[in-house]
Amino acid sequence: MLNLSQDNFTGPIPHGKQFNTFSNDSYIGNLGLCGLPLSNRCDNDSKLQPNLMEMMMKN
């Protein structure tokens, strides 16, 4: 299972496929993330920051 905790990711969490299987614990330590399954709602400012998908594509 992929665990994205403690990676300092920011922005909205992508929807669909494997992302739908992750629990909240998978995102611990990423205070800048927002959107489901987390309780942090995304606002317009989050679109200005590099998001999780962009960070994963770079690696």
UniProtKB/TrEMBL annotation:
Superkingdom of source: Eukaryota
Subcellular location(s) of the protein: Cell membrane
Gene Ontology cellular component terms for the protein in this record: plasma membrane
Subcellular location, principal: membrane
Keyword check for Transmembrane: yes
Topology relative to the membrane: Single-pass type I membrane protein
InterPro entries from the UniProt entry: LRR_dom_sf (IPR032675)
Keyword Cell membrane: yes
Key words of the record: Cell membrane, Glycoprotein, Leucine-rich repeat, Membrane, Receptor, Repeat, Transmembrane, Transmembrane helix
Assigned protein family: Belongs to the RLP family.
The protein's name: Uncharacterized protein
Annotated organism of origin: Gossypium schwendimanii (Cotton)
